[in-house]
Each structure stands twice: as C-alpha cells, then as structure tokens.
Amino acid sequence: MGFIRAAQAAGLTLAEIRGVLAIRDGGQAPCRHVTDLIDQHLAQIEQRLTELAQARDVLRRLQRRAAATNPAQCASGEVCSILAEPAAGA
C-alpha cells in the first residue's frame, strides 16, 4: 500500500500509522492528526541534529588533540591523555 510506504518514509511508526487508519476508519479525516505527528517527528529530528552537531564538535576537538599528541609522552597513570581532559576546553 502506497500510504503505508509514504508514512514509513516520513518516519511514522506502525503504531502511528494504525492510529491514522483508525481515525479514517472511524469516518474522520486524519489530516490534523497527521500534521501533529509530522510536527512531533520534525521536532525530534531537529533535536537529534542539534545533539549530533554538538557531538561532531567534541569529536573534532578530540581529533585535533589526538593529532597533536605524542603517544611516547603519554602519562603512564592515564588511560589516554587525549580523553583525560574535557574536550570542550580544547
């Protein structure tokens, strides 16, 4: 069914798709419900993109620190000097 594929491509779960179909089967137009679902999914993706961008920034700082680190000079008491300090300060 094309509707189910399109709904899944938009990120709707099977439970959410069942809810949309139940509204339609109840004789109502599910458009408002679908709009709310789209808004919720978009907000979740925006939040995840923000989190991923922050993680990318931390990893880039760690990558620069790693490139500047001489393994021969690592302190023996540390597990890894690259990760020993907060990456946010690098």
Q: Descriptors for this entry?
A:
90 residues; Multidrug-efflux Transporter Regulator, Chain: A, Domain 2; 4 helices; 69% helix
Task: Give your account of this protein's structure.
The structure is a single chain. The chain is mainly alpha-helical. The chain has one domain: Multidrug-efflux Transporter Regulator, Chain: A, Domain 2, CATH 1.10.1660. 69% of the residues lie in helices and 0% in strands. The protein has four helices and no strands. It has helices spanning 2-9, 14-25, 31-68, 81-84.
CATH architecture: Orthogonal Bundle
User: What distance separates the N and C termini?
Assistant: 52 Å
Query: Which percent range fits the helix content?
Result: 55-70%
Order of helices and strands: HHHH
What is the residue-averaged pLDDT?
A: 90
Overall CATH class: Mainly Alpha
CATH topology: Multidrug-efflux Transporter Regulator, Chain: A, Domain 2
Main sheet characteristics: none
**Strand fraction band?**
under 5%
Count of β-strands: 0
Which structural class best describes the helix and strand composition? mainly alpha
Structural domains: how many:
1
Low-confidence stretches: none
Shape: rod-shaped
The radius of gyration computed from the alpha-carbon positions, rounded to a whole number of angstroms, is 23 Å
Query: Total helix count?
Result: 4
